[in-house]
Amino acid sequence: MEKIITNNPTGYPEIRNIFNRYTKEFICKKDLFDLGMRLSHKLTGRGYQPFWKGLYYNFKDQTTPCIFFNTINLGKNPWTIYFETTLPRLGKTPKAFYDFAVKQLAKENCKEIIAISQCAYDMQIEYLKQEYPEYMDVIKPKMKVQLPPQEPLIKGYSEKKLPKDKIVFTIVGADFFRKGGKELLQVFDELIPQNPQLQLNIVSSMKYGDYATHTTVTDYDNALDIIAKFPNHIKLYNSLPNTEVLDLLKNTHVGLLPTWADSFGYSVLESQATGCPVITTDIRALPEVNNNDIGWVISVPKKENGNALIDNQAKKKRFSHILYENLSLTILDIINNPDSIKLKSINTLNAIKLRYEVSLPQG
After folding, report:
1. Which CATH number fits domain 157-357: 3.40.50.360, 3.40.50.2000, 3.50.50.60, 3.40.710.10?
2. pTM of the predicted protein model
3. Which residues pair with 96 in a beta bridge?
């Protein structure tokens, strides 16, 4: 079996986009930049830094093929790169580093540059047009789009074990507030007293203070108060193994990702694969995997590139209000039209099956 070098064998994007796609032997080889990150962490106490994760150079092995996610190879190895936003991804470093990294994308040993969404592809093309037009003719022919593969996890709607006296919703994600958790809990706080059939599962470490929402400990405390207020209707799981998350989704009517900011939204695919139609916003890549035939889509203020329009406090407040209002309307519609759940569940399973058939590997 052909061996392939990678640099992050436990990374979730790597698992979803690379290891689940290729039938090859992956070997993890640390490099110059991994050493730099370790030394930086020891000296400064800082963890993940884009610069150290965005580049790779192995002095000892310059021949074995490589496949990376968001990481640019500086060596002579033939290599492929998957990405979610734009490349290079080096954080706040001098432009000279970006110049050098882009040159690596243009070299002959860079074989494929794979966007995990059409949104990412379009963002990269626009970035090259603006910053590096001289490399466009060399880099663009290497680029293509491949959505993350997602195998159907049930054969049909009849396999789902759904309680008849409840409508079960589930949201999954560590950054709870960035995923729309604050607005979601506000909606359930209002609706549960008049609609006791509502059930909400939360699988999250309840992180706050993320780059999109800038939520605080007060928001965290308010969220916990609402959860404690409805112990028979809202269940919080701080952490679950992935197998248990999937089992939870198989017993869920509706998945949730009413997010403020996500480059893709892998939990949408897992929900759909278990027959859960999903409520999402329409930012970034989400319209590529969700629509109103197979789920529910909330239109929110966006920039041309698909990112949410949340650049200042006033815009964040407007975004939050629009999200809350439309979440409320959507969940009320589901309560009043519960038959729509089964119809969308069947449609979303069919969509997953079709999508999976065209996302399998070429090698």
Report:
1. 3.40.50.2000
2. 0.92
3. none
